[in-house]
Design a protein that fits this description.
Distance between the termini: 36 Å
Order of helices and strands: HHHHHHHHHHHH
Strand content: under 5%
Number of helices: 12
Number of strands: 0
Helix content: over 70%
Structural class: mainly alpha
Shape: globular
Radius of gyration: 21 Å
């Protein structure tokens, strides 16, 4: 049957007329169908355990001695910070081994490029899928936070795009770097010297003001600090609107800058 005589439904089924980046996104979504049950269960379980153990358990001891942390109970202080820290980890996870696997091990990207998809289409599909994963995880986390009674402000809804932006601020630059790697040795260094220190010292578990004076400027310069602050202010409804453009702009620059660099590194690696 000639292409121009096929029915619209058949054309849609074959992906004809679908924007190329959406076809690349469709591959990742299709692959996720095999693992989504386990990942969604884990996405619910991890925040529940963290908030129950540290927010409620440890938080009761903190509140007993200090009464409040930055004017709120420790559970209220901790929950939004864990949201930002979690999307940092998810964004990093999705931008390291899956990217390298699609280039070096499974060579999914090369299979995509054998179709009419371009390198930009492949990259956009990857970034879009990471954004989808971040949205899923953030939505679940916010639902758990609401279940613990922390999300009491309507501004909590804005914490969802803020969290996704935080995750992309890490995912895009790391994906650009992953495209240059020949093996996964550097990924361990990213987690050991990047993700873990940021998780511990970017305001998730205690205010930056409690750090030594010489270390505070470094903490304030980290992307996770801006993500934690933005998510915390939105969830608690205590937003300093004059600084929102600073926090969001910082994360947006990293996300867009990482994407622009990734266009270069992906092209160099995939077009030989």
């Amino acid at each position: 049957m000639a292409l121009d005589t096929e029915t619209p439904g058949l054309l849609r089924a074959r992906g004809v007329g679908t924007p190329p980046p959406w076809r690349a996104l469709g591959y990742w979504a299709y692959s996720y169908r095999r693992t989504w049950r386990g990942s969604v269960a884990t996405s619910f379980l991890i925040p529940i355990l963290y908030l129950a153990a540290m927010g409620v358990g440890l938080g009761s001891l903190v509140d007993k001695h200090t009464h409040t942390v930055d004017g709120v109970t420790y559970l209220y202080f901790l929950a939004p910070g864990l949201l930002a820290s979690t999307v940092m980890q998810i964004g990093t996870n999705e931008a390291t081994y899956p990217v390298m696997g699609a280039i070096k091990w499974i060579r999914t990207y090369f299979a995509m490029l054998a179709t009419p998809l371009s390198v930009t289409d492949v990259l956009l599909g990857t970034v879009a899928w990471i954004a989808v994963r971040l949205t899923i995880v953030s939505s679940i986390y916010l639902a758990v936070i609401a279940g613990f009674g922390v999300a009491q402000s309507p501004l909590t809804l804005l914490a969802l795009p803020a969290a996704v932006l935080t995750g992309l601020a890490f995912a895009a630059p790391i994906a650009a770097f992953a495209a240059t790697c020949e093996n996964d040795t550097w990924f361990a260094a990213i987690y050991r010297f990047g993700v873990v220190p940021l998780f511990l010292f970017s305001g998730t578990f205690f205010p930056i003001s409690q750090l030594p004076a010489w270390l505070r400027p470094l903490a304030y310069a980290t992307p996770l600090y801006h993500g934690v602050t933005l998510c915390r202010e939105l969830v608690l409804g205590r937003v300093d609107w004059s600084l929102v453009p600073v926090h969001a702009g910082y994360l947006l620059v990293l996300a867009i800058g990482g994407y622009m660099v990734a266009r270069i590194t992906f092209r160099r690696r995939l077009i030989t």
